[in-house]
Design brief:
Layout (H helix, E strand, L loop, with lengths): L2 H11 L1 E6 L5 H16 L3 E5 L19 E4 L4 H7 L6 E3 L11 E4 L1 H13 L6 E4 L5 H16 L4 E4 L8 H17 L4 E5 L2 H13 L8 E6 L3 H6 L5 E4 L2 H16 L8 E4 L3 E3 L12 H13 L6 H5 L6 H12 L3 H19 L4 H7 L5 H12 L3 H13 L1
Parallel strand pairs: 1-2, 1-3, 3-4, 5-11, 6-7, 6-8, 8-9, 9-10
Antiparallel strand pairs: 10-12
Helix pairs in contact: 2-9, 4-5, 13-15, 13-16, 14-15
Pfam families: HTH_18 (PF12833), PBP1_XylR (PF22177), Peripla_BP_3 (PF13377)
Keywords: DNA-binding, Transcription, Transcription regulation
Protein name: Xylose operon regulatory protein
């Protein structure tokens, strides 16, 4: 067989796939990294990707696209109208759900909200707020889920959303003043979840302009963990880490099945976030009880030294019964649960950031042995440590 024939055969085997995904934000780039990873491991696809921004109208070439498949962020009615007429396999990676009855994979916004609420509660917050965007369905879903977590726990949640999507300078100033008035009206301290990192950055800018102290008065948490943006914020922004990379891989796997004539069940798949990247914007304790605050600090500082509840009791002037009752009422967990949770958080960090073996990690995190650590980790995270390391590292490396 000649080289020309070989090349011709390779080309006939290639699938032509379009990616209608913007490259302007960290989440979308994570999706693209996951798709690229799947392609490299499984199929040699010919990829068609153009530069575009979120919410942009459909590109002119899309109406006549005659390729083999499409993965798209279908975030407006214009794109939905065009792609729904295409006679090719299609996978949606947007929360907007503009085209029904097609395979769809996205971040689990309920899990994002739950993780954010727990992040604030473990720091002792009892007052909560959410800052969102009207134009994004996922913002509304995160707001509703966060409100539900807060209200289920017996607290209240203040909500701020822009009245419009402002384009004029006057409107921008008016919305900024509305946000400032809202932030100034919030009780202190309050834990605020912003719908994504860009919105959180806007909140931080207003706080700095009006002299609101972050995190002492208002603690702020974003979503997406755009590392460059988070580090450029003042103070650096804590953020929920979505499984964007894994979402991209899952979308590519779905499209692969469809292009081979198979079916995808279930049509919808939601992936939970990987954790919270804690930075200065939420690095605070909002606990008024000085003894419980002291106990939380002791656990935070010594959790990986093999401590138990009795060791914590030595640091505060309370009986065990009084301490455990007050601790659970304020923190929402028993002291033992808090010790284990802190250890698991440290295990997760070491799995991602180091090459340490499970035995070495168990020793550094205060577990009796790596078998016990593995059982505790799986109970908390639903996956074994080795699987978590493999999946999470792909996200961080991309």
């Amino acid at each position: 067989m000649s080289l020309t024939q070989v090349n011709s055969e390779i080309m006939t085997k290639q699938k032509s796939v379009a990616l209608l995904i913007e490259t302007s934000n960290a989440y979308a780039r994570g999706l693209l990294s996951g798709i690229a990873s799947y392609i490299h491991e499984h199929e040699l696809w010919s990829i068609h990707l153009i530069e575009q921004e979120r919410g942009a109208p459909p590109p002119s070439w899309l109406k006549n696209w005659d390729g083999d498949g499409l993965i798209a962020r279908i975030e407006n009615d214009e794109i939905a109208s065009v792609v729904s007429k295409l006679k090719i396999p299609l996978v949606d990676v947007s929360a907007a759900r503009k085209v029904p009855n097609i395979p769809w994979v996205e971040t689990d916004d309920t899990a994002v909200a739950k993780m954010a609420f727990e992040h604030f509660r473990e720091r002792g917050f009892e007052q909560f707020a959410f800052c969102g965007e009207l134009e994004f369905q996922w913002s509304t879903q995160r707001q509703q889920a966060f409100e539900n977590c807060v209200k289920t726990a017996g607290y209240s949640c203040s909500i701020f959303t822009p009245k419009t999507s402002p384009t004029r300078l006057l409107s921008l100033k008016r919305e900024r003043n509305r946000m400032a008035n809202w932030l100034l009206s919030l009780p202190r301290p309050t834990g605020i979840l912003a719908c994504y990192d860009i919105k959180a950055q806007q909140v931080l800018d207003v706080c700095r302009e009006f002299g609101i102290k972050v995190p002492m008065e208002l603690a702020l948490l974003g979503v997406d963990n755009d590392e460059l943006l988070c580090d450029l914020c003042t103070p650096p922004l804590s953020s929920v880490i979505p499984a964007a990379y894994q979402t991209g891989r899952e979308a590519a796997a779905m499209l692969d099945i469809l292009m081979k004539g198979g079916t995808v069940k279930p049509l919808a798949k939601l992936l939970e976030p990987l954790g919270v990247a804690t930075r200065q914007s939420t690095d605070v304790l909002a606990i008024e009880d000085p003894h419980i605050a002291s106990a939380v600090r002791f656990i935070r500082d010594h959790c990986c030294e093999g401590i138990n509840v009795q060791d914590v009791l030595k640091s505060i002037p309370l009986s065990r019964r009084v301490f455990e009752n007050r601790f659970q009422a304020i923190v929402g967990r028993t002291p033992h649960q808090e010790i284990v949770r802190r250890r698991i958080d440290r295990v997760r960090q070491l799995l991602i950031e180091t090459e340490l073996t499970l035995l070495q990690i168990a020793e550094r995190c205060g577990f009796q042995n790596h078998e016990y650590m593995s059982v505790a980790f799986r109970r908390e995270m639903d996956v074994p440590p080795a699987t978590y390391r493999r999946n999470a590292r792909k996200h961080y490396e991309n």
